[in-house]
């Protein structure tokens, strides 16, 4: 599709201004949907300016409070347990020595956020942290929903937004992540290269480090702008689109003697939700590039070896190099 918006795909992730609220269906909305679609197909990643809803001060407040969170004693952080790997507390390991992470499932519910805060600060909780996290979480989920709606709308397939999001077939998970400050000038891997397994991801970080692999196999730095959010298309959306949207492999390269903090919201399918190609993406040849699967089964497969290169292709790929 022709577009009057030129991206420099090899050096820069596109950034869209969502501060102007377009009415759904308006010309402005439709144009934005096409740009988001182009970025999703070419890049699998884009940034958005969303300061009308989350001003810079709110990001700065959140980064400050994340330091408070990770300063909590280790025995308390470990109390954040979840049977799903990666959704509880993850401490530093020999393979990943710089990263610590906390997960909150069903993060759209204020009582989940409050329970988490009470666990970390057993003596009276931390109302100020709780309020900041709750507000940021709700806004990130709202933003994910807008982006998802734009992707679906751009293909004229709004009905999938209804069946997924409005019919409660998704789960919201938030991860709070800390990367240690480097002790030497030598850059180090903070998070190994991966794609996100869910539907769509929204994140923000206080300093540089996030990189994506371009279609030409070059690592591109995602510009750190404290006031913007970065969006990633997840594996489930690639399946839905029969391979039409792109998945950006991404990693975090630590280069600074500064602590790095990220807050990340994932929209994922329900555990037993079936991920499958939408019939609208099947050509006359009938080719399904992926077999249908239960989201949970894929997660189990992935967690058995999180360092594998293309888990989606190995697990559900039907055609080579999909
Ligand atoms: O910390 C970041 O910038 C990236 C985090 C990430 O990719 C993830 O949590 O899936
Ligand atoms: Fe990720």
UniProtKB/TrEMBL annotation:
GO molecular function annotations of the record: metal ion binding; oxidoreductase activity
Alphabetical UniProt keywords: Iron, Metal-binding, Oxidoreductase
Ranges for domain Fe2OG dioxygenase: 170-269
Claim: Metal-binding is one of the keywords in the record: yes
Domain of life, per lineage: Eukaryota
Gene3D superfamilies according to UniProt: B-lactam Antibiotic, Isopenicillin N Synthase, Chain (2.60.120.330)
Main function: 2-oxoglutarate-dependent dioxygenase essential for auxin catabolism and maintenance of auxin homeostasis in reproductive organs. Catalyzes the irreversible oxidation of indole-3-acetic acid (IAA) to the biologically inactive 2-oxoindole-3-acetic acid (OxIAA).
Similarity comment: family membership: Belongs to the iron/ascorbate-dependent oxidoreductase family.
Organism name: Papaver atlanticum
Protein name per its UniProtKB record: 2-oxoglutarate-dependent dioxygenase DAO
Coiled coil: none
């Amino acid at each position: 599709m022709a577009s009057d918006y030129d991206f420099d795909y090899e050096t820069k992730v596109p950034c869209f201004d969502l501060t102007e609220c377009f009415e759904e269906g308006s010309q402005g909305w439709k144009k934005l949907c096409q740009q988001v679609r182009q970025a999703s197909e070419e890049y699998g990643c884009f940034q958005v300016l969303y300061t009308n809803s989350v001003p810079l001060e709110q990001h700065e407040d959140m980064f400050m409070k994340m330091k408070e969170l990770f300063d909590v004693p280790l025995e308390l952080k470990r109390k954040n347990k979840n049977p799903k790997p990666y959704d509880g507390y993850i401490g530093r390991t020999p393979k990943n020595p710089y990263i610590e992470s906390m997960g909150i499932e069903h993060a759209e519910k204020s009582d989940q956020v409050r329970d988490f805060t009470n666990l970390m600060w057993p003596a009276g909780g931390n109302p100020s942290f709780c309020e900041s996290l709750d507000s940021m979480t709700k806004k990130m989920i709202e933003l994910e929903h807008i982006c998802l709606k734009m992707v679906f709308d751009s293909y004229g397939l709004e009905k999938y937004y209804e069946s997924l999001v409005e019919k409660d077939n998704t789960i919201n998970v938030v991860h709070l992540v800390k990367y240690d400050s480097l002790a030497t000038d030598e850059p180090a891997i903070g998070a190994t290269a991966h794609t996100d397994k869910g539907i769509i991801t929204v994140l923000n970080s206080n300093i540089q480090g996030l990189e994506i692999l371009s279609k030409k196999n070059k690592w591109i730095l995602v510009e750190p702008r404290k006031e913007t959010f970065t969006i990633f298309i997840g594996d489930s959306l690639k399946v839905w689109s029969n391979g039409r949207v792109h998945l950006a492999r991404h990693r975090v390269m630590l280069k600074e003697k500064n602590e790095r903090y990220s807050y990340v919201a994932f929209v994922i399918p329900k555990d037993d939700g079936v991920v499958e190609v939408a019939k609208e993406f099947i050509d006359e040849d009938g080719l399904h590039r992926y077999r249908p699967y239960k989201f949970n089964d894929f997660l189990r497969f992935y967690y058995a070896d999180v360092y594998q290169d293309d888990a989606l292709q190995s697990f559900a790929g039907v055609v080579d190099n999909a």
